[in-house]
Amino acid sequence: MDDFNSETDSDYTSYWRDWFISSRGNEYFCEIDEDYLTDRFNLTGLNTEVQYYQYALDLVTDVFDLDCDDDMRETIEKSARHLYGLVHARYIVTTRGLGKMLDKYKKADFGKCPRVMCKSHPLLPMGQSDNPNVKAVKLYCARCEDIYNPKSSRHSAIDGAYFGTSFHNIIFQVYPALIPTKSSERYTPRIYGFKVHAPATLIRWQDGERDDMRKRLRKLEIESGFKDDVEDVEAEDSEEEEEDEEVDMEALENGGVVGADVKV
Asked: Locations of Acidic residues compositional bias (predicted)?
C-alpha cells in the first residue's frame, strides 16, 4: 500500500477492489461498481452488521487514511471483506450485477456440474441462508436442479450469504434463454447387463412419479422443460386412440352397450 500511495488518484481508484477480486479464493465474486458502493441507500442496515463499518467502507472505497497498528489494520481488513460480501449479495441482483455474473457463468468460472448426465453444465454460486455465518456457499446446477459443494477448499470457506438465496433463480427469470433443457437420463445399475433389482424398482417408481407430474403439467399447459415431452404426448395420443378402438369393439360385441353383461 505504501508503494502505491505515490501513484495518482486516478490510478488509486478501485485498487482495493481489484486486489480483492484477484486474490485466490475470491474467483466467485464480481467487481462492484464504485458508484454503487458510494450510494448510502445501497448500504442501508449494514452498519449494524459490520464491525468498524465506516473504516471498512473507507478501505473498500480507497479513502482509508487512519494511522493504526497492524492488529487494528487486520481487524478492519476482515471487516472490509465481510462488508464487500454483504454488498455483493445485493449488487448481483441488479441489472449491472446480473450482467457481470452472466459473463462469469458463460465462461464456467464457477465450475461445472460433477454429475455425468449433465455433461459439464456450468454452475452458479448460491447461499442456503441470507444471514451471514450460517451456511457456506454452494453451487447450483440448473440442468439437474441440484446443489453441490465447491471442489476447492478455499471456495468452501466463502459465506453463502455473500450470494444470497435468490440470485441463482433471478438470473434465469431475467435471462430465460439460459434455462437448459432438463435431462431425463439416469444411470441404471446393472450386473452382466441385467438391472439390479432394488435400484431398478426405485427407478421405475421415480420414473412413474415424474411421468405423472409431467402429465399434470401438460394438462395445466405448463412447460416442464423436458425435451422429450413432444414424443410423450404423441405416445399418449396413440395409446388413447387404441383404448378408444378397444371400447368401440367391446360395445359392438355387447350389442352397442359398453361394458354390458351378456346373459344367455
From this structure: 229-251
Strand 138-141 to strand 146-148: parallel, antiparallel, or no bridges (unpaired)? antiparallel
- Distance from C-alpha of 106 to C-alpha of 126, rounded to nearest angstrom: 16
Taking 80 as the threshold, does the pLDDT of residue 196 lie above it? no
CATH number corresponding to 4-91 = 1.10.1820.10
Cα 122–chain centre separation: 10
User: What sign results for the dihedral spanned by CA atoms 148, 165, 43, 9?
Assistant: positive
Give the residue extent of every domain in the chain. 4-91, 109-178, 190-253
- Residue pLDDT, tens place only, 42-77: 999 999 999 999 999 999 998 888 778 888 889 999
Query: What are the beta bridge partners of residue 190?
Result: 195
Contact in structure between 132 and 49 (CB atoms under 8 Å): yes
Residue count (the chain): 264
Q: For residue 100, what is its C-alpha cell? A: 457481470
